[in-house]
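re: ur msg from earlier - yeah i can do the uridine-5'-diphosphate complex, just paste it... oh wait u already did. ok heres what im feeding in:
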Amino acid sequence: MAVLVTGGAGYIGSHAVAALLEKGEEVVVVDNLQQGHREAVTGGRLYEGDLRDEELLDRIFRENEIDSVIHFAANSLVGESMKLPGKYYHNNVYGTLCLLEAMNRAGVKRIVFSSTAATYGEPESVPIRETDRTEPTNAYGETKLAMEKMIRWFETAHEFRYVSLRYFNAAGAHESGKIGEDHDPETHLIPIVLQAALGQRPHVSVFGEDYPTEDGSCVRDYIHVSDLADAHILAVERLRRGEASAVYNLGNGQGFSVKQVIDIARRVTGRDIPAVIEPRRSGDPAVLIAASDKARAELGWNPRRSELEAIIASAWGWHRARPQGYRG
Ligand code: UDP
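and the outut:
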């Protein structure tokens, strides 16, 4: 049986595809290649197309023996979502609706969902637990929460089973050096910091120095992308065992401010990385740190690349080897 990976040519999706292939799984990928890269798909069968294309989805389910779906395909930029919420509702929410309906038509009812810490919004308390209030502060998080809820209603009505994985901040690259992070335009902190280290940008902008944190910049919990990928495999295995639907946070449980990330990157790269303080970016909560003991206990998840220095070193390896990303 095959696993269908939507958005499998994207950053986290491609690392999950690699991890599935390493496990000997049969993999089918669907990606519209809006953000994804053909070269990031290291094996399996790739369908180029959009989830909102119902005929394509029916064809994929007809042509392959799929027993589970891992759903990554979505737009995922906080800043952009505040300017173009309609784009997020259309691609993320309506795209997920099309996927769930196609799954239902095909009788495929197991789904691992790529969710996010952005579903919580400004946390009630830190570290964040899965039972905490979900009140997104940006349109991106709001659409992801809507997608999670939609999946739950498909469980109630159509006996779907899901695992929703709420990631904190993904970073780093695959140890093979073949895949890594490459967005255009790049908006994520760690790749931007490393582009500045390479001299591709004059400086890093620190978005806000007046947050209620120790140094005034936002605090995030950075997790290695391959540790995230491993969690997806454990989630598929959980669903195949017939266990109950569940929501899990995935993070390291340790927070680093934007300024700390830049300092660590200076140490790791040995390069001078100029930083300039700028106004806050709209939609950003001050602090996002995960409590992930539930994923460890129930999924048996064990992140193995937890040190931020090692995560940044892994990302640095990719950026130095492929300064133009997949174009290089
Ligand atoms: N950030 C920043 N400068 C940048 C990019 C990001 O200060 O050039 C901050 C951003 O405001 C947030 C943190 O870094 O507080 C992580 O942002 P990113 O976009 O990497 O991930 P997000 O938390 O939005 O998923």
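cool cool. The pocket of uridine-5'-diphosphate is lined by residues 78, 169, 187-189, 192, 204-207, 218, 220, 258, 281, 284 (CB under 6 Å). ping me if u need the other ligands too
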